[in-house]
Amino acid sequence: MIVPISQTGQIVGNNWGDYVKKGWVSWWIANGIWIALFAIGTFIVWTREVDGAGVTQTPELKLVAFIVLLIAFIIPLTIQIIWMIINLKKDRPS
User: Fold this and answer.
1) Per-residue pLDDT tens for 16-52?
2) Distance from CA of residue 77 to its chain's centroid?
3) What is the pTM of this model?
């Protein structure tokens, strides 16, 4: 999202509240997408009988696959937390 800013640091042609609101709405939408992807991935890992390599999935292998999925989602989680902190700082009145 590109926001035009004047030389004095004021947002041009936009209300600051609208900008903050858009940031939070975008954050919630992104979180919803990540939660849905994680839930779908978890469902696939726990319900499949055979993985892509043809190995029969035991509970231990399903747990390992789930942990790998969990580790893969740590990066987006970190980005979302940083984004939330930025939104919280922008939300405070100056």
Assistant:
1) 566 667 878 888 898 999 999 999 999 999 999 998 8
2) 6
3) 0.67
- Which residues in 57-83 are b (16+ Cβ under 10 Å) and which e? beeeebeebeeeeeeebeeeeeeeeeb
Q: Read off the pLDDT band of 13 (50, 70, 90).
A: low
Alpha helix (H) residue ranges in 1-94: 16-47, 59-72, 74-91
DSSP at 52: T
Which class for 89: exposed (0-12), middle (13-18), buried (19 or more C-beta within 10 A)? exposed
Q: What is the pLDDT of residue 18?
A: 67
Lookup: tokens for 41:
């991935």
User: What are the Cα distances from residue 65, in Å, to 6, 23, 24?
Assistant: 50, 34, 32
